[in-house]
Amino acid sequence: MVLKIENLSVSYETDIEVVHAVNDISFSIEKGETLGLVGETGAGKTTTALSIMGLLPERTARVRSGRIEFQENDLLALSEREMQHIRGDKISMIFQDPMTALNPVLTVGEQIAEALILHNTDGYTQKEIEARVEETLELVGIPKERKKDYPYQFSGGMRQRVVIAIALVCNPDLLIADEPTTALDVTIQAQILSMICDLQRKYGTSVIMITHDLGVVAETCDKVGIIYAGEMVEYGTLYDIFEGDEHHPYTVGLFGSIPNLKENARRLHPIEGLMPDPTNLPEGCSFSPRCKRCMEICMKKKPAVYENNGHQIRCHLYDAGMQKAVSENRKEAGEDGR
Amino acid sequence: MVKFVVKRLLYMIPVLLGVAFLVFAILSLTPGDPGTIILGITAKPEDIASLNAQLGYDRPFFIRFFNYIGDIIFHFDLGTSYQSREPVIDSILARFPNTLKLTIFSMSVSSVIGISLGILSAVRQYSVLDHVCVITALIFACIPGFWLGLMLLMLFSLKLGWLPPYGAGSLRHFILPTITVSMTSAAGLLRLTRSAMLETIRQEYIRTAKAKGASEKRIIVRHALRNAMIPVITTLGTSFGASLGGAIIAETVFAMPGMGTLITTAIRQKDIPTVMGATLFLATLFSLIILIVDLLYAFIDPRIKAKYRNGGKSHE
Fold first, then answer.
1. Of residues B126, B214, B306, nearest to A114 (C-beta)
2. Residue extents of the structural domains in chain B
3. Residue (of B80, B83, B33) closest to B277 by Cα position
């Protein structure tokens, strides 16, 4: 077990309001495994990632409860200095927007080397560090001669490769990729994704892939967590999520909103409504206001987690005594043509 | 880069000509003539007219202007003062060292105080230190220079007798004027540095650096500072240039013979050659300082350097 998160809740608190960004999320990752965190913008994916990194905004963010266990250490209990040793070395992160994630006044070589210099516990010489920088650049598909170039001299896709090189240069045990391809065009997306997968296989790195793109999930992940309004509404293997019979209605909606070429549809099928206001989450199930299968109990009581062979669903449809509803749900999932 | 510098140096020619024309025109349009001012209003009109003719002031405006420019270009001659009958360049060179010293002292003090406290303030935003810095800076930014100068003079020279009240004879003479000039500009620099720094540390590349495991100190020194310094250097350059000519208040309060008092006295006496010479001298310095500031940008920011190399065309 590389990383284990238990009942993590994070909120952003200001004088005016309290934003409940992450609510009671739990998951774990084994060595070499890829976990996809899927959800809409603002669902709390990035907040989860930043909590692991210990990079939540200091003044406003507060971890209300939970445990983040990484290689037998409770990350939330570590001091800032101890976290600095882990960050960049054991856990590293690829950020979403390559255009702003690199320092404009330092060469890419300097920026990649920095992680090595900061975590130089093996006493590498300057020369060895330079060699490693060049090696990493080539690994992500950038000619090593370009290490003396500045970020403005690279295109978006190339910059994202540099960002990835920074994240990989210390061979981390856990890599958090926060929407690594969202800012890139589709051809580059595929290249970057397959590169991350190759590197992962090569070094046995565990990866958390944060995305809102189910296609990316299908290509890269072993396990998937569907996040809605800061809650993990469904969690299971790639097979459970893509091929399983039982689903949270939100997952059904997510798949339903992918345009289907075979179907002669004139309209897209979005999930009606908007994500609830995180400062004022509904009582009961957070998805209930948008849920097509909403029942009376959904608006009153938070659903418990239903588990079937590791596949977890947080929905009242799977409460004991709701078997009839479940079978209907299965039927509907089937009718959706999946 | 050399091409850029040469180009900028050539640009200075029209700028300086423009400055010269403007000042010359304003001086000529203001009422009064040097003859009357030197001899006094009770003097005979013939004497005044003959003195004006002797000074060349009776000739038409454009002829005087072109003669003046011609003398500068072909004879490197800034003219002779109407009042003291000495070459203008001599009175400039006699006074400029004082102004330069005062400027260097006060700019060093204000940049050390302003920039370092500005950075601290930003890094420890909302701390007690930050609040104290911001409020003190606000107070100093609001205090008029002449008042601060007079108060310092009263306290340290008259009451305590620690420091000389006027003159420029020794380094001790410079202490009070330096404080007077530097406090106001330190206040401005502190506020500017603080806001530039705050903006920089919220950039995403700072988060990337944190994600690499860099310590706070390293992030500030290596990642944030260079990016935050560009607006600060701009202001530093302009206020350096401005205080070369604009230390007038401190020079006046502390009766220090410098460029500021030279120009103000000369204007009152309608001593056209002195005003022109001193103004052009300062304008040249100012342009050179701005050029140096622009070159400093290139050392800080590689994007700007690339732009200079491409002759002003953007690289992206």
1. B214
2. 89-311
3. B80
**Separation of alpha carbons A166 and A234, rounded Å:** 32
Cβ neighbours of A124 (radius 10 Å): 15
Mutation for B interface: A103, A121, A129, most B CBs within 10 A? A103
- What's the ipTM? 0.82
| Model pLDDT for residues B246-274, shown as the tens digit of each residue | 577 888 888 888 888 888 888 888 888 88
Q: Is A284 helix (H, G, I), strand (E, B) or coil?
A: coil
CATH homologous superfamily for B89-311? MetI-like (1.10.3720.10)
Distance of alpha carbon B152 from alpha carbon B172, whole angstroms: 14
Closest CA to B71 of B86, B85, B84, B88: B88
Relative to beta strand A34-38, strand A305-308 is unpaired
Helix ranges (DSSP H) in chain B: 2-29, 34-39, 45-55, 61-75, 88-123, 128-142, 145-152, 175-201, 204-211, 216-218, 225-246, 248-253, 259-268, 272-300, 302-309
Distance from CA of B208 to the nearest CA of A (A): 6
SS3 at position B74: helix
Q: Does residue A152 belong to the interface with chain B, where contact is any CB pair within 8 Å?
A: yes
Residues of chain B found within 8 Å of residue A85, distances taken between Cβ atoms: 213
